[in-house]
Specification:
By secondary structure, this protein is α/β, with parallel strands linked by helices. 46% of the residues lie in helices and 18% in strands.
């Protein structure tokens, strides 16, 4: 015959315990049996005494037999309770091991390739945001072609890859920046074409950084240069952003870059009048689950890292 606490539990509620409820109930069962008291066992398990009583009663209801003989001063295991205690201990130990393994798995580094041009402060904010979402990011700065290759060879779990504007989740508008204060709010490539009187003078150049040495950007500006009569040597791909910026800081040349990059380099930025140039980015990963883990991060955190306008 069931005890009074058991009869108070609705059969519809406790007929089948959820697996997680079984683990919690077994924790209470093991704690109470080890101390011979619901009050002391509950304190050891760091739960209220009433919760421990409900969980043990639910476990008894689940199995259809009493685990304890209860008296006003103490509780003792029934023969059935003595038989079930070893299994309950193993289940509790296994659950604790699983929880420990889960915490370790959360801390396992998630290696992701990001553009080499990303500034350190936004990268640090992205890593911090990842930790708030139980994702330990290990960021690997690389150029656009290398990032795509790292994902293909599974050397990273995910990458922010360069794509045409229409295919991107994140968009970073580009313009041309120069050392001196411009006279107008827009720059036209055709103004870089040398007049007859200037043919012997040094022609101003447009410098592309490696991040923009991708067909959907490089080909657009090259075709525009051809259309407005620029010489091929007037559009140059630099070996690094530092080299490109150095050329611009020491001359009247221009740098193709984002507004934020121009601000960081103390250059004056303007949009291109004849052409709308945008860096597009999306997430590519080795598995769908890895891609979803990155997409689950706040989009604004990734946008800030990539230099998207506020």
């Amino acid at each position: 015959m069931l005890s009074k606490p058991q009869r108070l539990i609705s059969m519809s509620t406790w007929h089948r315990l959820h697996p997680v409820d079984v683990v919690a109930a077994c924790r209470a069962f093991v704690a109470v049996s080890g101390h011979g008291s619901f009050t002391v066992g509950a304190a050891a398990a760091r739960i209220p005494q009433s919760v421990a009583s409900r969980r043990v009663a639910a476990l008894e209801q689940h199995f259809g037999a009493r685990l304890f003989d209860r008296s006003s001063r103490s509780v003792t295991l029934t023969p059935f309770g003595r038989d079930m205690l070893p299994s309950a201990r193993r289940l509790v130990e296994l659950a604790e091991t699983m929880e420990h393994d889960a915490e370790r798995a959360k801390l396992r580094p998630f290696r992701m390739a990001v553009p080499a041009i990303c500034a350190q402060r936004p990268l640090a904010h992205l890593v911090a945001e990842g930790r708030r979402h139980s994702l330990t990011l290990d960021l690997h700065p690389a150029g656009p072609a290398e990032r795509a290759e790292l994902v293909r060879t599974l050397e990273v779990r995910a990458a922010l890859v360069a794509v045409p504007d229409g295919e991107g989740t994140w968009r970073v508008p580009l313009g041309l920046a120069q050392r001196t204060e411009p006279r107008s709010g827009t720059v036209y490539l055709e103004t870089l074409r040398a007049s007859r009187a200037q043919r012997t003078a040094r022609r101003r150049r447009v410098w592309l950084q490696p991040e923009d040495d991708v067909p959907h950007l490089r080909d657009q500006i090259t075709r525009l240069g051809d259309a407005v009569g620029l010489r091929p040597a007037q559009i140059v791909v630099a070996t690094s952003l530092v080299d490109a910026a150095a050329e611009v800081l020491g001359s009247t040349d221009l740098l193709l870059c984002s507004r934020r990059q121009a601000d960081e380099l103390d250059l004056h930025w303007r949009p291109v009048g004849e052409l709308r140039l945008v860096r597009g980015y999306t997430v590519v990963a080795g598995t769908r689950d890895d891609a979803e883990r990155i997409r689950a991060l706040p989009p604004a955190a990734i946008a800030h890292t990539l230099g998207e306008d506020e």
